[in-house]
Design goal:
5-stranded antiparallel β-sheet; 10 strands; 14 helices; 451 residues; alpha+beta; single chain
Length: 451
């Protein structure tokens, strides 16, 4: 909007190359520096409720905000300051005491239920709001306990942890070779694995077999009948003794239909053995488990290790942790950063992760932590759509229809829209039905082969 920027003006920052995190932020002009020919702008309230130092910004990188939004801006600033100060008053509710996810503890000091005392358990969660641990015990089930009622236990005291010497995880570069069925796709630690013979197959082959009559015959490799859960766990233990890391992963119940073992001590050995030896998929799975359980710092550390190991999914998960749009883990005290989210989305997208590419397209579409670019937006939406992301297909179709960042192409637009609808995107289904191209529900027919 037109007007003169003066002290007290409400402005929006845009087009900064050196401070991408400030782009799109609103602030108030404090003064004008004659020497540097820049405005001093106070953008936000600090993390402890204090006013942050003003930032010197050129007039070309500022736009006046409608005066009608001034009260909304000041109200938001006051709310943020109050929230920051409230967090200082009760910091204990934001982060758990110095115990970790899956640490062994002994229940102590319960007066209302003294029969629970001296029970051995594993920490499986932390609730910031109540300041209590969730503890899984072998005899009493799940308990919600205050930190004072949890006495750290020696892990060796938990049944099953003495098996670490019996189960040495194979050292190596985690190269599991190619799929024995299609001889095409590369296998990983999390590829579908069969406990009877210890063979793996790729996801595509597993899906194809599950939809055919071949599964009735049992294992496609050794022809053994499908094991029961108890038999499967016994089979996995045989492979554990041989040091197969895929057996360790499956024993955790993180992959396959085997279910969790009843011996949580043995389960903890498997988790620590895999993470300790740097298996990226295990680090990411454990990191996600930590975050879901309320252990923010430990979860982020495991995800960062997996990302540093080159796992695209870990970069994508880290980006979601920092993405201010979702704020999935804000209740754990994690501070959002769109700049860090953009960094991890970019890395994951370049590594071929379609979810990250779709998110990256949205960042460029809205100009979040970057300069708005519809061309880059369409580029990454297309990468994500070609990778099978139905939301990106719908967004790409909209760009093609409106000619944003690309030439208008109604035919290609409808093909992507059809594919997204066929894959289950509800908004695309509604749009297809309103298009009046054919009778309602025409999108249920398979899309063209090239899509």
């Amino acid at each position: 909007m037109d007007g003169v920027i003066v002290a007290g003006s409400l402005v929006r920052v845009m087009g900064l190359a050196g401070r991408l995190d400030l782009n799109g932020q609103e602030g108030q002009v404090v003064s004008f520096d004659e020497d540097k020919q820049r405005f001093a702008v106070r953008v936000c309230v600090g993390s402890h409720g204090e006013e942050t130092p003003p930032v010197l910004i050129k007039a070309a990188n500022l736009e006046l905000v409608d005066s009608g939004d001034a009260e909304r801006f000041h109200k938001a600033q006051r709310s943020r300051a109050a929230a920051c100060k409230a967090a200082i008053v009760a910091p204990a509710a934001a982060s758990p005491p110095p115990m970790c996810f899956h640490d062994a503890v002994v229940v102590q000091g319960l007066q209302a239920k003294p029969h629970f005392n001296e029970q051995l358990g594993i920490i499986t969660g932390w609730t910031p709001g109540t300041g209590r641990f969730t503890v899984l015990t072998a005899e009493c089930g799940t308990l919600s306990l205050k930190p004072a009622n949890c006495k750290p236990a020696v892990l060796d005291a938990v049944e099953g942890t003495d098996l670490l010497e019996q189960y040495p995880v194979v050292q190596g570069d985690s190269d599991f070779g190619g799929c024995s069925i299609c001889e095409d796709n590369q296998l990983t630690l999390v590829s579908p694995w069969l406990s009877c013979c210890g063979q793996s197959m790729c996801n595509d082959c597993a899906i194809a077999l599950s939809s055919s009559d071949a599964t009735v015959q049992g294992c496609p490799f050794c022809r053994s009948p499908h094991p029961t859960q108890d038999t499967a766990v016994d089979n996995i233990r045989k492979h554990l003794r041989r040091g197969d890391p895929r057996a360790f992963y499956n024993f955790l119940g993180a992959a396959g239909p085997m279910g969790l073992p009843t011996n949580f001590g043995e389960s903890e050995v498997c988790a620590r053995a895999l993470c300790g030896r740097g298996y990226n998929e295990a680090l990411m799975s454990h990191g996600h488990g930590c975050l879901e359980a309320g252990f923010a710092q430990e979860g982020v550390q495991h995800l960062q290790r997996a990302a540093e190991g080159g796992l695209a999914e870990a970069h994508c998960h880290l980006a979601k942790v920092f993405d201010s749009d979702g704020q999935t883990y804000s209740h754990l005290g994690l501070i959002s950063s769109d700049v860090r989210a953009l960094e991890h989305y970019t890395i994951a997208a370049k590594m071929g992760n379609s979810d990250a590419a779709a998110a990256l397209g949205a960042f460029y579409f809205h100009g979040r932590a970057c300069e708005q670019s519809f061309e880059e937006c369409v580029k990454w939406y297309r990468v994500a759509a070609q990778g099978g992301n139905k939301c990106a297909m719908a967004n790409l179709a909209e760009c093609l229809q409106q000619g944003r960042g690309c030439e208008k192409d109604q035919q290609t637009c409808m093909k992507w829209l059809h594919t997204a609808a066929y894959l289950g995107d509800r908004q695309s289904q509604i749009t297809c039905d309103r298009s009046q191209i054919a009778q309602e529900g025409w999108w249920r027919n398979p899309p063209p082969p090239e899509f």
